[in-house]
Design brief:
Blueprint lengths: L17 H5 L2 H20 L3 E3 L3 E12 L3 E12 L1 H6 L15 E3 L2 H8 L3 H20 L10
Parallel strand pairs: 1-4
Antiparallel strand pairs: 1-2, 2-3
Helix pairs in contact: 2-4, 4-5
Length: about 150
């Protein structure tokens, strides 16, 4: 399983993050903005996106509007993978992604092409950011990941 590499038994060493150290903050942000756009496009097509530490998906929900009227809506969710939850003892709301939802991995080629970066750079940047994220979870640090 790919996510095993995000289960850290010991603290991260700086040499495990060579790409993040070479890129500027704005380059890292461009990579993630492009990844966010890719995820967004997949969600619009009712596909879930697997990102190594969990899955982004759209799930059915209900919104109450006006006088007790209930509208069926869809809301985007992120479901951390269960090994990650167990390993880091995370408390998360239970989210059931509908079984019929097709799932796709991140398409590094597309994400890179959109911002004119090399595919390897994008793949390593995303991998190292997720490692860094796992390192923060391991050390019980607060982490904020924002997606447009």
């Amino acid at each position: 399983a790919k996510m095993i590499k995000y289960l850290l038994f010991k603290p991260l060493e700086p040499e495990q993050l060579p790409t993040l150290r070479e890129l500027t903050t704005s380059e890292i942000c461009r990579v993630w903005a492009s990844a966010s756009k890719y995820i967004w496009r997949q969600l619009l097509q009712k596909r879930a996106v697997e990102v190594g530490v969990g899955t982004f998906a759209v799930v059915p929900a209900h919104a109450t509007v006006g006088e007790g009227k209930v509208l069926p809506v869809e809301r985007p969710v992120f479901r951390p993978c269960r090994f990650l939850k167990k390993f880091y003892k995370l408390k998360c709301a239970k989210t059931k992604i509908p079984d019929e939802t097709p799932s796709v991995p991140l398409d590094f080629e597309q994400i890179a092409a959109a911002i004119h970066f090399r595919r390897e750079i994008v793949e390593r940047c995303i991998h190292e950011t997720l490692l860094f994220f796992a390192g923060a979870l391991r050390d019980s640090k607060e982490v904020e990941f924002s997606f447009k």
